[in-house]
Write a structure and sequence with these properties.
The structure holds 2 protein chains of 2 kinds.
Chain A lengths: L7 E12 L4 E13 L4 E5 L6 H9 L6 E6 L2 E2 L7 E4 L11 H11 L4 H14 L15 H13 L5 E5 L7 H18 L2 E6 L2 H7 L2 E5 L6 E6 L11 H27 L1
Parallel strand pairs in A: 3-8, 3-9, 6-7, 7-8
Antiparallel strand pairs in A: 1-2, 1-4, 4-5, 9-10
Helix pairs in contact in A: 2-3, 2-4, 3-4, 6-7
Chain B lengths: L18 H39 L11 H13 L12 H32 L1 H16 L6 H8 L3 H25 L3 H9 L7 H35 L5 H10 L3 H29 L10
Helix pairs in contact in B: 2-10, 3-4, 3-6, 3-8, 3-9, 5-6, 6-8, 7-8, 8-9, 8-10, 9-10
Classes of the chains: A alpha/beta, B mainly alpha.
Chain lengths: ~260, ~300
């Protein structure tokens, strides 16, 4: 593979849309350029409503940039695809399918043979520790199990990149901590590229190789911090807290700036 | 979201000693509660029947103006099991008439369901289809179905097709409107999920919109089926021969109130049974559903 070509590249990406209620143009993202290497664990943090989810949606192909482009292995992304698995905060499992059917959905859509579907499904269910619950419907699963199922459903497709949109925000603290550990372990094992959006600085430092901090609207890149702590990380260590303090400070500036503009209106 | 289901079991009294004793007590209590509830359920219908029988047998109303329940039962018996004779529509024809009405309901309802589900999904999903059909459907829906009877007879004559047209046309509207509303409310996030799992845009309708609309489809089918029974009676009274509606009208013309009541009870029973059938089917198909459609 060409070494000069980045794995993922955001090239001067802008995104604006019309706020239907207020009837004005909102600039969600402004001039974002970013390169991501294969196997990197990228965390995107920013104040709420800063356009970080928009960034993820563009990478997923759900939304098109107003200007600029996003490339995956040199090819422009213009639609969703199974090579980019998305884990949503709201799980978004198909409620009419059992857990197993939800996991099998992707392979079936891609026309994989029945025997390999079964094999890869079993393996993925084991990986996320959901064996035994295969025949339950999503409403019969706990929040943590649903999010594991949502993870399994995209892992089974062996995507090039995993997009996670505040996946643990709706979970209770204990479940969140456990899933964070599991995702970290999973990444150590598979070295899959992860693009993870969160509003929690602690989560960002806990999981990421690199933390991208965004400004308040319009969302621009504020900082790009490398976290080189060894894994598994200890949230109580001084180094962890140094990173955390640095990022919290950056974020606090943005929240203050937002307050200032709001007052200026 | 917690999914604990609260059973309606009787609560154990606090301080009850011995698990076995408690379980026995509560089982016995549960049976008692169940019996009591059954008694409450049949109380009102039973009271009406007994009161009616009492009023008529005491002679407070003449049997000509209101037949007693027993008289209705005897007339019904003859209608079901009596010998078949020429011109005696009231003897031994019940089974045939039930079959005829059922056949019309099934034919009309099948057409309405197929057309209503397909068109409803398309209207709910494609804005072009919505723009094309919305105005027309809302206008036609505002016309009471009985207003179409003269039109149907004019076009189809006194013929099966007139009845089937009325039933199909009438029950189509609640189905199409419900299905379109359901399809329109397909959560966007499920569409996105399907897309990122590899579903091409052309297959979203069948993979996501249709299953997501199933609860609304069953709501529409249930309303539509109820209307189909209304319309089969109307059609048989006015537009075709044979069937329970025809029996109702003939009984009226012969001043047979006992048979009118027997026919009403028959229609009620069939309507209730078909409604039970469809809600049973819905419960099976919608096993995946909780109180809310979303998650």
């Amino acid at each position: 593979m060409n070494n000069t070509q980045p794995f993922i590249e955001f090239r001067n990406v802008h995104k604006s849309f019309r706020d239907a209620r207020e009837g004005r143009i909102v600039h969600a993202i402004e001039d974002i350029s970013l390169e991501i290497d294969r196997g990197e664990f990228i965390m995107v943090v920013g104040p709420s409503g800063c356009g970080k989810t928009t960034l993820l949606n563009i990478l997923a192909g759900f939304e098109q940039p107003s200007a600029g482009q996003v490339l995956l292995e040199g090819e422009t992304i213009d639609r969703p695809g199974a090579d980019r698995g998305v884990v949503f905060q709201e799980y978004a499992l198909f409620p009419w399918l059992t857990l197993r059917q939800n996991v099998e959905y992707g392979p079936r859509e891609r026309g994989i043979s029945a025997s390999s579907i079964q094999e890869v499904t079993e393996r993925t269910l084991r990986m996320v520790r959901l064996e035994g619950a295969e025949n339950r419907y999503p409403h019969e699963l706990s929040g943590g199990m649903r999010q594991r199922a949502a993870l399994a459903r995209v892992l089974v497709n062996d995507p090039k990149i995993l997009l996670m949109d505040e996946p643990f925000a709706a979970l209770d603290a204990q479940t969140r901590a456990r899933l964070q550990r599991e995702v970290a372990a999973l990444w150590t094992e598979t070295r899959k590229t992860v693009f993870f959006v969160t509003h929690s600085v602690e989560e960002a430092v806990l999981l990421g190789d690199r933390v991208i901090a965004m400004t308040t609207l319009p969302g621009r890149l504020k900082a790009d911090v490398r976290i080189s702590l060894s894994r598994p990380r200890d949230p109580t260590s001084p180094q962890f807290n140094d990173h955390r303090r640095e990022l919290e400070k950056l974020l606090a500036e943005e929240i203050a700036a937002e307050g200032a503009t709001a007052d200026g209106f | 979201m917690s999914q604990t289901s609260l059973s309606k079991s009787v609560r154990l009294a606090p301080g009850e000693s011995g698990a076995k004793q408690g379980a026995l007590n509560s089982a016995a209590k549960q049976n008692l509660v169940r019996l009591w509830r059954l008694a409450r359920r049949v109380a009102l219908p039973a009271a009406i029947l007994i009161g009616w029988e009492a009023v008529t047998s005491a002679g407070w109303v003449s049997s000509a103006s209101l037949p007693s329940p027993t008289a209705v039962a005897f007339a019904w018996w003859e209608w079901i099991f009596g010998p078949r004779q020429a011109l005696a529509w009231y003897s031994g024809t019940w089974g045939l008439y039930v079959f005829m009405s059922l056949e019309r309901v099934i034919a009309g309802f099948a057409i309405a369901s197929a057309a209503g589900v397909v068109l409803g999904i398309l209207i709910g999903w494609y804005s072009v289809m919505e723009d094309l059909f919305d105005g027309l459907i809302n206008f036609l829906r505002a016309v009471p179905m009985t207003a179409w009877v003269p039109f149907a007879v004019f076009i189809f004559g006194i013929h099966e097709s007139a009845a089937i047209f009325l039933i199909a046309f009438g029950s189509f509207f609640p189905i199409v409107v419900n299905v379109a509303a359901g399809a329109r409310q397909t959560p966007r996030i499920l569409i996105r999920a399907a897309r990122m799992l590899g579903t091409p845009p052309g297959k979203l309708l069948i993979r996501v919109v249709l299953p997501a609309s199933l609860p609304a489809i069953f709501t529409g089918l249930r309303v539509g089926l109820g209307l189909a029974w209304v319309l089969v009676i109307v059609a048989e009274m006015l537009a075709v021969q044979g069937g329970l509606g025809y029996a109702l009208w003939s009984a009226y013309q012969f001043s047979r109130l006992d048979l009118i009541l027997a026919a009403i009870a028959s229609v009620g029973g069939l309507g209730l049974a078909s409604d039970r059938l469809i809600s049973l089917l819905a419960r099976r198909v919608l096993r995946w559903q909780t109180g809310s459609t979303g998650q």
